[in-house]
Specification:
This protein is an alpha+beta fold. It contains four helices and eight strands; from the N terminus they run H-H-E-E-H-E-E-H-E-E-E-E. A hairpin with a 4-residue loop joins strand 1 (29-37) and strand 2 (42-49).
Length: 135
């Protein structure tokens, strides 16, 4: 999964412009949002990371921003199955790419979580912000 995740995020269509060929690893990203939109046959996953882009825009650096979030919008979703959702399921995100560029996404350990397949994904809402280091 890690290889497919890194290839996806490192592409110029996603986070490659900000991170180059070294986007944050899956274990450095926290899944904070899942939005299922049956009208658009889409699933949007929101991620947060403290791994800042290597190509940090000057204004972000000047403002002392220390966190980054982005959303991946999967479209044309099929095979959606929800068998439970909670903090444990949000900790495990697996993404693989089949032949033909179809994405298989598994959130959770498998016996509980969300599973779906999508032929397309796009980046939405990338932004840096100032986060508290307090627990």
């Amino acid at each position: 999964m890690s290889g497919d995740w890194l290839r996806l995020l490192a592409s110029r269509d996603h986070l490659g412009g900000l991170y180059g060929d070294a986007p944050p690893a899956p274990d450095a990203c926290d899944l904070f949002s899942v939005h299922i939109d049956e009208r658009q046959d889409s699933v949007t996953l929101g991620f947060d990371t403290r791994v800042l882009p290597v190509n940090l825009p000057v204004e972000w650096e000047e403002q002392g921003l220390n966190a980054f979030e982005f959303h991946l919008v999967f479209t044309g979703v099929t095979g959606l199955r929800v068998t439970g959702w909670g903090a444990a399921e949000a900790k495990e995100v697996r993404l693989s790419v089949r032949d033909g560029g179809v994405f298989d996404v598994v959130l959770g350990p498998g016996e509980s979580g969300i599973v779906f397949r999508a032929p397309a994904v796009r980046l939405a809402g990338p932004r840096a912000y100032l986060a508290s280091d307090s627990p």
